[in-house]
Specification:
The chain is an all-alpha fold. The chain has a domain at about 10-95 and about 160-235. It has helices at about 10-25, 25-35, 35-50, 50-80, 90-95, 100-120, 120-130, 135-140, 145-155, 160-190, 200-210, 215-230, 235-245. α1 (about 10-25) packs parallel to α10, α6 packs across α9 (about 145-155) and α10 packs antiparallel against α11.
């Protein structure tokens, strides 16, 4: 088994992320998609009925709920990296133990990012890099929002450009997967003469987004392990201890 909790190159992090994703796709997909699935259904139905207001409301609610899936996926990936079988129940139970600190950290992260993007695109990107690990810190280290953000800044210090490169590679990986599956869906729609705004096609698009989202989350989690391994000699034993707290 690969030693995921160690110093890794950018290529290793992306490769490890893809392996974790493919080997555990069903459970990771359910962990991410289960809370938002009802709203994917609503979006598909409202898209088919051309009800733009209801579609927008469903999209906003889905976006809000999806933020909690990042924490649950973090626990699941941590279990996988320790050789444990990931569990939907265990992942969400662990998340709910740190629910309020996680929620506050996420809201602070979103607010800081939005302010950065409003000022200019570059400050927004800088904020994203500085706070790249704040959610992992809130989940695994059980810190409050301010301390989680400060901790993220300290962890990434000296590696910001490299971490940006890993993030861009993760985006590219997710794009390739979405593009490949999207092309297949488009071909099927053409052959079946399906309405691109119909219920079935809209549902497929929503599920495709849920399928690709973990490909953006897993590299950030492995990069968090990498930073701690480089700076703190972090290893599987330390992660195991944190999960038991």
């Amino acid at each position: 088994m690969a030693d995921y909790i160690s110093e890794r190159t950018a290529g290793q992090i992306i490769g490890d992320s893809l392996r974790i994703y493919l080997r555990h796709l069903p459970v990771i997909f359910v962990i991410y998609g289960l809370p938002i699935f009802p709203f994917i259904l609503i979006e598909a139905a409202t898209a088919a009925s051309r009800d733009e207001t209801a579609n927008l409301v469903a999209l906003v609610i889905e976006t809000v709920i999806s933020m909690f899936t990042i924490g649950a996926v973090t626990f699941a990936v941590s279990d996988i990296c320790l050789g444990n079988k990931p569990s939907i129940k265990r992942s969400y139970a662990a998340l709910f133990r740190v629910f309020w600190a996680y929620l506050a950290t996420y809201l602070l992260y979103v607010a800081a990012t939005l302010i950065g993007l409003v000022l200019l695109v570059v400050p927004g990107i800088i904020v994203l890099l500085l706070l790249l690990f704040c959610l992992q810190v809130a989940v695994l280290e059980r810190r409050g929002p301010i301390e989680s953000c400060k901790r993220s800044i300290r962890l990434g210090k000296g590696y910001y450009w490299r971490n940006l490169g890993v993030a861009l590679l993760a985006i590219l990986l997710a794009f390739v997967v979405v593009f490949a599956i999207g092309m297949a869906l488009g071909l099927i729609a053409v052959v079946a003469d399906s309405d691109p705004e119909g219920f079935v096609f809209s549902l497929a698009v929503g599920l495709l987004g849920a399928l690709a989202a973990p490909l953006l989350q897993i590299p950030a989690i492995l990069l968090y392990y990498d930073m701690r391994a480089r700076k703190e000699h972090y290893d599987g034993a330390a992660l195991s201890q944190e999960l038991m707290v």
